[in-house]
Amino acid sequence: MTDFSEPATSSVPPARPKLRADAVRNRERILAVARDAFAEGGANVTLDDIVRLSGLGVGTLYRHFPTRDALVEALYLSEIEKLAAAERELAESAPPVEALRAWLLLFVDMMETKLVLRDALNAIVGGTAELYAASGEMLRQAIDNLTARAIASGDIQLDVEPLDLLRALSGVATAGTGPNWAQSARRFVDVLLAGIRVSPAEGTQ
Questions:
Q1: Which of 56, 52, 55, 72 is nearest to 116 (CA)?
Q2: Mind listing the pLDDT tens digit for each residue in 158-179?
Q3: Fewest Cβ atoms nearer than 10 Å: which of 15, 94, 121, 148?
Q4: Could you tell me if 170 and 2 are in contact, meaning their C-beta atoms sit under 8 angstroms apart?
Q5: 81 and 38 share a domain?
Q6: Residue 201's CB: how many other CB atoms inside 10 A?
Q7: CA-CA distance, 73 to 195, in Å (whole number)?
Q8: Percent of the chain's residues with pLDDT above 70
Q9: 105-144 in b/e burial notation, b at 16+ Cβ within 10 A?
Q10: Domain presence at residue 198
């Protein structure tokens, strides 16, 4: 699972070199195809499968992802980066509690992708400690920012670490990964928010 322990200062991955527009499109195409392929085929998906399904050349795939492990890592990190970007976008476009709720629902979506990739992530040579440390720090920053805005607005009162909200949702995912776990986790988002909202009466005291 994502590492929610204390952050390491070197855990954030270095920025990728800037790519040409066509290279960006190819990379995003590969990741989108890989996401669907792993969702359907699980850990048995190969790079040859991705080449065939993407319609791109072998050379194009290997320029971006020289190994299957590199592709799996990039696919997982791309989901985390989308969450980080969503936090910034929601902070600018939605009221604090609505932004927090929308982002927590996106976190559940990310957990769905991670569960699809679980076996492939567990098979990465060298392990996933560094990968999860990097993703954990990005998630920590996002949830800290979102909850800080909601607290400052007077809409919520949080007596636990912001990361505990993510730990709770992750617990729903790991407790039971049957076909309905994601629906349960999405409902649990509203349970969590109901527990930390400040009622109108409390807000006037």
A1: 72
A2: 999 999 999 999 888 777 666 6
A3: 15
A4: yes
A5: no
A6: 7
A7: 35
A8: 86
A9: ebbbebbbbbbbbbebbeebeeebeebbbbbbbbbbebbe
A10: yes
